[in-house]
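User: Quick sanity check before I run a bigger batch. Here is a single chain. Can you write out its predicted 3D structure?
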Amino acid sequence: MSDKWQKAKSQLLASRIRHSEDTVIRVKDVEVGGSSHVLVAGPCSIESREQLHTVADALKKSGATILRGGAFKPRTSPYDFQGLGLEGLRIMKDVADEVGLVTISEIMSPTQIETAANYVDIFQIGARNMQNFDLLKAVGQTKVPVLLKRGPSATLEELILAAEYILKGGNDRVMLIERGIRTFETWTRNTLDISAVPILKQETHLPVLVDVSHSTGRKDILLSCAKAALAAGAHGIMVEVHPNPPAALSDAKQQIDIEEFHAFWKGLLDSGLYHGA
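Assistant: Done. Predicted structure follows.
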């Protein structure tokens, strides 16, 4: 922890010193933060109405409350599937309204904010855009809740300061999510920094979640890592779910199917670590 941070943190809007009570963000009938947990689940990319409805229906029947799905996809290769764009957002809203779920989807540019706000309940700022300061400032001018992902090479200080851009703009509905950082390890997609959870909760008053899919990239350890995240104090878990992962247009290897999702969800509930609202 830098000396600069120690001196500045008492002045930051995100700081626990400045705001001692936990921030609890209410979106429709769902609360993120406080003593209860949330599960965020859904496909990496929205590919069709049928695909998203299948996942949403499984979530609703299980008791999960937040549906994720990408309409704008920042991909490493320009030749990979980039998402359905506006059509994806329309599908998400139609499905979520029909089933009754809160939605999260990523935006990548300030130009997408006005349109996306008509379709999704929570903006996601992805890892690649964590320090897209124009985007952070722009969502700070809205009242739409924001889920801010930690960048793959970002320090916790940099993550908190990125959140500060949003808070400074007047939007106090900010959530942080650990999604793994880049290290020398090759047996997982990224390295899940479990220590980030208690540190972020200690240093800030913002809700803290963990994305077990992107941090590990491995189906076989998702449940163990989700349990570890909850034991460390995370307010919620994000996991990618697809009806037919081998056919997925993105993140095929790390997404779980519906049967695997039910097993994952049961494992979380049976652990006694997950406490719903």
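The chain has ten helices and ten strands.

User: Great, the batch can go ahead then.
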